Amino acid sequence: MISKILVADDEPDVLNLVSANLRAAGFEVIKAGDGPSARELARSELPDLLVLDLMLPGMSGLEVCRLLKADPVTSGIPIIMLTAKAEEVDRIVGLELGADDYVTKPFSPRELVLRIKSVLRRGDQNAAAADLLCLHQIVIDRARFQVTVAGKPVDFTATELKLLTLLMERRGRVQSRETLLNEVWGYESAIDTRTVDTHIRRVREKLGAEADRIETVRGFGYRITD
């Protein structure tokens, strides 16, 4: 099955370059040149992934991300943000809003394609696992892509679910930030360990009263405990 990718960027050269490389990699591509169009196409087309530039006319990429993640119809669509190097704060905010990854401009189209495949692969792996994983009041149903805490369903992105699942599968064992980047994000080198910290913070917020089960091992990484 061909994956459908929505690319939102107001620079025609970037939009055409990304689209051409994605089509060459076997993806179906939909294009949007502004924020409102990106939101409308995400809702109507339900793409498998959204490549979202932060600096869009009409509605910023951050606002598009926030609205899509708050909408039950589109909350499960993975988002990769395109950011400039100077937009570090916005990039962190985007991750906190639910974006799965980011690529900094100027970027290699090949790298972007690899990032897209990695995010889609994580989603496929999550959907393929068919068993329940339980830790006290935290239950992961990997077949249904669902997490419940104290019996109540909680929305997790594909990346957040992969991160929580890995920690629960290795409960009690410390996982370095580099290990998490490699196994959750598919990075072979530690590109930016703050990505891990941002996602851990979001996971803790969603776990509520169970958040303290994720322990920080200062200067190294994280582990989840009984």
Describe, in plain words, how this protein is organized in 3D:
It is a single chain. This protein is α/β, with parallel strands linked by helices and 226 residues long. 44% of the residues lie in helices and 23% in strands. It contains eight helices and twelve strands. It has helices at residues 12-24, 35-45, 61-70, 88-97, 109-128, 158-169, 177-185, 194-207, and strands at residues 4-8, 28-32, 49-53, 79-84, 101-105, 132-135, 138-141, 146-149, 152-154, 175-176, 214-217, 221-224. The chain is globular, with a radius of gyration of 17 Å.
Q: Percent of residues in helical segments?
A: 40-55%
| Large-scale geometry | globular
Radius of gyration using CA atoms only: 17 Å
Helical region count?
A: 8
Could you say what the CATH architecture of the largest domain is? 3-Layer(aba) Sandwich
CATH topology value of the largest domain: Rossmann fold
Low-confidence stretches: none
What is the CATH homology-level superfamily of the largest domain? Response regulator
Average pLDDT value?
88
The CATH C-level name of the largest domain is: Alpha Beta
Task: Tally the structural domains.
Answer: 2
| Strand coverage percent | 15-25%
**What is the total tally of β strands?**
12
Q: What's the end-to-end separation, in Å?
A: 40 Å
User: What is the N-to-C order of secondary-structure elements (H for helix, E for strand)?
Assistant: EHEHEHEHEHEEEEHEHHEE
Describe the biggest sheet? Answer: 5 strands, parallel
Strand order in the sheet with the most strands: 2-1-3-4-5
Structural class: alpha/beta
